[in-house]
């Protein structure tokens, strides 16, 4: 099939998970023999094997300008159009099949974000998600909780993880207790809060522990016990998971939370705050530890000194991660691209 994929974000220009997922899906589809073009406001990803079309934007409302410019692109030569956002103006059929993935809820983010301007922007984007769910032939959500604001969207297809890359390798585990974080120091990922909890609750009891942070906005000197890794390549990130004894991402909101699934696929126990994505990925805490923010440090401390509990969570997490295998996710999307009959089979 000839597939057009829309994603404002790509790993070449943004750390946002939607862009990484679009990149992974497009790559796997090309490996399966499909012809894929990605339309994005970000530059091409170095080494990408799919086609890339740059949709240039500018100004403060760049995502809205991106959506408006998509209206002028001819998608009629594609068998399927798969949008990861910004397709709410494409109400006229543009390709044989139009699929929309809703990766979370901007309404949910608006409830938590600070600043009147950002809250207003999130509310506008929330309404655009609702409109997009009606414009597409088929809309899907990445977790059941995402349906709160679009209850008519019944189909759930989770985000996918390449389990050939993110896989356990006990031989690479760090000799000393290591916690991994993947996210941002500020805003909803709450890296700064994790760093404080680690230094307050973990280091006094486990003085040889290290918190490794895959983070680009951390301060130059985040304090004792913390090592900032910055931005990593795909292989470096996989190796960071394999080194870790535990993974922690205490976000106040995730629609899914791809790093949780990556960690579980790599055999790393997950500790998270009970945001909607973490609850779904960890199967309500059966395959991970869910705790309020003020208990995160204590839970990490407990896990680092309890080898049996780590083993139990490694097994439970690895089993749960099978549900998020990229191959299964792409199977589901291929069925949608072919039409309702194939998707229902």
**Annotation field: number of helices:** 12
Main sheet properties: 7 strands, parallel
Helix-strand topology string: EHEEHEEHHEEEHEEHEHEHEHHHH
Strand content: 15-25%
Strand elements, count: 13
Overall form: globular
* Classification by helices and strands: alpha/beta
What does the model show?
InterPro entries: Glyco_trans_4-like_N. It is built from 12 helices and 13 strands. The protein is α/β, with parallel strands linked by helices and 345 residues long. Strands 3-2-1-4-5-6-7 form a 7-stranded parallel beta sheet, sandwiched between helices. Strands 10-9-8-11-12-13 form a 6-stranded parallel beta sheet, with helices on both faces. Strand 1 (2-6), helix 1 and strand 2 form a beta-alpha-beta unit. Helix 1 packs across helix 11 (326-338) and helix 7 (258-265) packs across helix 10. The model has no long low-confidence stretch (mean pLDDT 94).
Structural features:
37% helix, 12 helices, globular, 345 residues, alpha/beta, seven-stranded parallel β-sheet, six-stranded parallel β-sheet
Write the topology of this structure:
Layout (H helix, E strand, L loop, with lengths): L1 E5 L10 H15 L3 E6 L10 E4 L7 H9 L9 E4 L13 E6 L3 H7 L3 H20 L2 E4 L13 E2 L21 E5 L8 H12 L7 E5 L11 E3 L5 H10 L2 E4 L8 H8 L4 E3 L3 H6 L7 E2 L5 H9 L2 H15 L4 H13 L1 H5 L1
Parallel strand pairs: 1-2, 1-4, 2-3, 4-5, 5-6, 6-7, 8-9, 8-11, 9-10, 11-12, 12-13
Helix pairs in contact: 1-11, 3-4, 5-9, 7-10
Organism: Gryllotalpicola kribbensis
Protein name: Glycosyltransferase subfamily 4-like N-terminal domain-containing protein
Keywords: Glycosyltransferase, Transferase
